[in-house]
């Protein structure tokens, strides 16, 4: 196993990410942030499972108010909190005094104040982080990359993702802000490998947060993540990790347990063999559920899709089940069948085409119709 890249050390609360520090394990609260009791309970559960850092999604002023109360309930436990900024980057002013780290997605910065240059927005984020002595994460996802870069790189979405991360790292470097880490994620573990390898070859000094986003349900979601982690960490790449699994709320600590098991196996040379055909056939991806999810029926739907589609397991098709409006629209575009879930119903897509909006009780049958159509196109029914 290759020695880890000697990245710079980034303090985050009572831990350090990078350098020779142990690889930190992260997770994310799945409950709605404004449900304070449930969120505090989940933070305690994840903390007890051994998480070094726990992320919460913030999308509104009401979420910020809830965060302030939640923070008061976690101070005694020394929980390191990270916040996931959505499209309103200016919320960092409100949350920075309450957390140890903030993650922003470069692909979301173009949504608000379009007349402003992206570098101005990054400067605002960096200055706020500096004033509050907190860390940042540049979190780039293939499915939500900056539209300008997406157009520039075309089908090379990994190239677009890497370029976005490099640009934003340079923005922060030019501002003299070095208390940051970078993540390059996708639901395809092979793209995760490619993206992180490319970035690390250019900027081996920057700590990397590893993860396969929307990995799905166990055991497949664990396998995808394990494969990516085993290869990257063995190559000296990776300073902090997150296992993203679609799980019932009370089992969210399993993300941390699985992450620790994978790390322990890697350190002890216990690698799992990967069949050459792993990843072929039906691929179901689903997000790990977080506070952005507006209806918990999403978790049950993902499980129902897995059972329903079992008969199509040998076909090279991808079904994506996404739990929110933030990542749902963009990150289902690459799937053959995509579902992104709202509070009352599900938006069903075939490729990038929106088929319609269906209730949670009817969308499964509509999905099967599309799946049958696609299988028939691959293998037309023989006429007798």
Question: What features would you describe in this structure?
Answer:
By secondary structure, the chain is of the alpha/beta class. It folds into two domains: 10-267, Dihydropteroate synthase-like (TIM Barrel), CATH 3.20.20.20; 283-378, Sulfite Reductase Hemoprotein, domain 1 (2-Layer Sandwich). It is 38% helix and 19% strand. The protein has helices at residues 36-49, 61-74, 92-95, 118-131, 147-153, 157-174, 189-202, 220-234, 254-267, 297-308, 328-331, 363-378; strands at 10-12, 15-17, 24-28, 53-58, 81-85, 101-104, 135-141, 180-185, 208-210, 240-242, 283-286, 318-322, 337-341, 345-350, 353-359. Helix 11 links the parallel strand 12 (318-322) and strand 13 (337-341). It is globular. The protein starts with 9 loop residues before the first strand and ends in a 6-residue tail after the last helix.
Low-confidence stretches: none
**CATH superfamily (homologous) name of the largest domain:** Dihydropteroate synthase-like
Gross CATH architecture of the largest domain = Alpha-Beta Barrel
Give the tally of β-strands: 15
- Which strand-content bin applies to the residues? 15-25%
The span between the termini is 58 Å
Order of helices and strands: EEEHEHEHEHEHHEHEHEHEHEHEEEH
| Strand arrangement in the largest pleated sheet | 3-4-5-6-7-8-9-10
Helix/strand class: alpha/beta
Level-1 CATH class name of the largest domain = Alpha Beta
What Rg do the Cα atoms give?
20 Å
**Count of distinct structural domains:** 2
The shape, in one word, is globular
User: What count of helical segments does DSSP give?
Assistant: 12
Major beta sheet summary: 8 strands, parallel, barrel
CATH fold-level topology of the largest domain: TIM Barrel
Q: What's the average pLDDT?
A: 91
What is the share of helical residues?
A: 25-40%
């Amino acid at each position: 196993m290759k020695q880890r890249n000697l990245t710079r050390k980034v303090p985050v609360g009572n831990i350090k990410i990078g350098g020779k520090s142990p690889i930190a394990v992260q997770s994310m609260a799945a409950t709605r942030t404004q449900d304070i009791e449930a969120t505090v309970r989940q933070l305690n559960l994840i903390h007890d499972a051994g998480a070094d850092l726990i992320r919460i999604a913030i999308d509104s002023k009401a979420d910020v108010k809830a965060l302030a109360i939640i923070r008061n309930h976690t101070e005694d436990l020394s929980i390191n909190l990270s916040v996931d900024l959505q499209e309103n980057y200016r919320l960092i002013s409100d949350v920075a005094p309450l957390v140890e780290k903030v993650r922003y997605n470069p692909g979301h910065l173009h949504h608000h104040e379009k007349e402003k240059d992206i570098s101005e927005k990054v400067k605002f984020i960096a200055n706020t982080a500096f004033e509050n002595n907190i860390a940042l994460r540049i979190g780039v996802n293939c499915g939500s990359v900056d539209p300008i870069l997406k157009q520039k790189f075309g089908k090379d979405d990994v190239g677009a993702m890497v370029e976005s991360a490099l640009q934003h790292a340079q923005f922060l470097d030019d501002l003299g802000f070095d208390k940051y880490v970078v993540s390059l994620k996708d639901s395809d573990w092979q793209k995760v490998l490619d993206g992180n390898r490319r970035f690390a070859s250019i900027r081996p000094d920057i700590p990397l947060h590893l993860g396969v986003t929307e990995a799905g349900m166990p055991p497949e979601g664990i396998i995808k993540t394990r494969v990516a982690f085993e290869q990257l960490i063995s190559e000296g790449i990776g300073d902090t990790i997150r296992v993203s699994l679609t799980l019932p709320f009370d089992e969210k600590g399993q993300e941390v347990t699985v992450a620790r098991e994978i790390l322990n196996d890697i350190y002890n040379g216990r690698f799992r063999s990967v069949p050459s055909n792993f990843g072929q056939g039906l691929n179901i991806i689903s997000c790990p559920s977080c506070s952005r999810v507006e209806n918990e029926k999403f978790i049950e739907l993902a499980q129902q899709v897995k059972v329903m589609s079992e008969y199509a397991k040998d076909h090279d098709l991808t079904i994506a089940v996404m739990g929110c409006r933030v990542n749902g629209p963009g990150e289902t575009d690459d799937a053959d069948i995509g579902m992104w879930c709202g509070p009352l119903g599900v938006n069903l897509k075939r490729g990038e085409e929106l088929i319609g909006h269906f209730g949670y009780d009817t969308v499964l049958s509509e999905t099967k119709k599309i799946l049958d159509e696609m299988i028939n196109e691959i293998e037309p029914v023989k006429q007798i």
